[in-house]
Amino acid sequence: MHIYNQLLAAFAELCQAGSYTSIVKRAWQLYQAEAVQKINVYAGHMINGIVKDIELHAVVIDSEHIRYSSCTCQQPQFCEHIGALFLQYCKTLENGKVLAEQAYFQMLGVVKASLPKQPGESEQPAINQQTDAAELFRKLNEQYGDDWKKCKHSFHPLSQTLTSMKSMAKSSEYELQRLHWCASIVFVLYLGERALQAADSFSRYYHEMSFKRIAEPWTVQLYEWLEQLQAKPLQQFEQRWIRQLLSFVYARVEMYEKPLLEWDYIYYRILSIVAGHHALQSEMKQELEFRLAHEHKPHIVHVIYGSLAVLAFQAGEDEQALAYLENCQFEKIQRLMYPMVESRMQSQHWDKVEMWMDRLQQQFASGSQLRSVGPFLALCRKASALQPEQSRWLEAMLALLPHSYQALTEHYYAHGRFEAWADLQMYMGRRPEELKGSDLQKIERQAPAALLPIYHQAIEFAIHTRNRQGYRTAAKHMKKLQALYEQLEQPHVWQSYFERMQDRYNRLRAFQEELSKGKLVE
To answer: Do 40 and 112 form a contact (C-beta atoms < 8 A)?
Structure first.
């Protein structure tokens, strides 16, 4: 910043002493066109670089002796290439775009150049409690609204944009920083969506996947900050910011019928913060009801009903929330419903949990939404763990077989219900070689009797294949079965079973040979 302050004051004084207005404007054009191809800072006060105009020019700037600065264009004292290199240097600093714009106007004489700050001089926060959030979004649009044009080949320039935005609140208190950072993330997501809309159809899929990867940590961070805001009462300035965030996101919802980002879900998450603030909650409800009465576009009506459901849920009116959600397409609001059910589980309102779960089960029972049944099964598992005496949660999972097989398997195994686990494997026709070896070893140590019917079934299946490989597999399972009976101290049961098997299949010579190879017969 020392070089920046020195150069800013020196260039402003030089430009005021001479007629350099046209040169400064040309320097700004070169800077905007990214004509500076190389820049290097050295010796603590020297800057050099390459500027591409009609031809390439080598530029050297000396911040301590500004009149010694030079350019290969041979213009005396100050030229557009020196100005462009200085503006590009401004951009490399923290909050660089803002600094470059300020320097440009100050060199034009529009704003008075600031002198270098003295040690110990305090800096006034750019974002404070009196900051108008609507005005902030306007400034963000002015300064960064065209940054999406840089994303022709990659979305990484948006990371720099987000960093630059966040730095505007670096000297503000944490409560203001958090709000400003939420606004910055939302605005950068909007820029990313604009860039995706402008992508050609040939590379559209690649751009979408690239943006999802880079935007995922941003949205995760956004939701974490929103949860922090939801966990405490909102101050007046925070309520104003939340209202403006809601307005900005709602405008994005209205913009596209099939948006690339889940703006509706972001809107729901921000809206849930107003819970407990009755005046703000009532105001938002009246606003949404007014919009509902005058809105006819289906995708916006869906979002309004979902928003009213969020407000009703936060007010403890679960039946009313479900009534609102009846007007929405299930695949669009199921992600909204799962956190609501989990919240009621945590608060032990089981009557409301059953009401929500019955509504979800009705949707999956029809068979049309089974692709997305995973979160519902996870809720069933959690409810069963919290209410082990209730059988309805396991019955709900059993009713969704075979789609719930994996969830039931993990649930039975995690809670030590090994007999139920074994019954499920047999019902689904799973054989020991298809199961995890680590699971079988644990059950063998803790409940070996549960594995007996699985191996009996697997042996019969392998023999009925009527081929050498099947007989070899059957002999392997019989060897394991013998070890399980010996572990249970029931060798007589094994001997009786083995004699019956030999009598039944004594004509299968290949099978008898495999038993002999496995040392099951002498």
So the answer is: no
CA–CA gap between residue 319 and residue 99 (Å, rounded): 54
Residues 6+ away with beta carbon under 8 Å from 166 = 177, 180, 181, 184
CB atoms within 10 A of CB 381: 20
Handedness of CA 27, 126, 161, 89 (dihedral sign): positive
**432 preceded by a cis bond (ω within 30 of 0):** no
**How many Cα neighbours within 13 Å face the side chain of 291?**
22
Instruction: State the DSSP string of 405-450.
Output: HHHHHHHHHHTT-HHHHHHHHHHTT--GGGS-HHHHHHHHHH-GGG
Residue from 131, 134, 129 nearest 248 by CA: 134
pLDDT at residue 93 greater than cutoff 90: no
Distance CA 150, CA 153 (A): 8
pLDDT, position 18: 62
pLDDT tens sequence across 264-287: 899 999 998 887 778 888 888 999
What is d(CA 333, CA 342) in angstroms, rounded to the nearest whole number? 15
C-alpha dihedral sign at 23, 27, 32, 35:
positive
pLDDT classification of 163: cutoffs 50, 70, 90: confident
Kindly report the pTM of this predicted structure: 0.69
In sequence order, which residues have a C-beta less than 8 Å from that of residue 394 and are 6 or more positions away?
A: 380, 384, 408, 411
Contacts of 400 (CB under 8 A, 6+ apart): 364, 365, 370, 373, 377
